[in-house]
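Deliverable D4.2, example record:
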Amino acid sequence: MGFHGPGFRLAAADKGTFDPKLLSRALSFMAPYKGVVALSIGSVLVVTAAGLVRPFLVRTIIDRDIAGGSLTGLFQTLRFYLASVLIGGLAMAGQRYLTGWIGQKVIYDLRDTIFCHLQTLSLSFYDRRETGTPSPA
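Output generated by the structure prediction step:
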């Protein structure tokens, strides 16, 4: 039994097919936010780069600074390490904020589009169908 109960199944899982038209239609709602999406992807790259540089800095601390007895080099490398942690954390916070913002905007636009379409339907459409019954595609 999952979160949605024992009888919950996704309609897309029943079909078992991939519809590229449906995907492009869904992605069209993200088009007005291309710049923010690019910024979010950029923040993912910054988080990744900051995470990848840390093992190199630890190796430098151990192999060069501690083994060589260089105290000034140790402090310099530690500054770089702390900067990578700070930059990675800020980029991750920015990424989470941006993806949440984009998601909320896309959901709002989708709901607005559906509402506007429902407003254009005639009253006889609502007379013929029960509440909650989807119309045939």
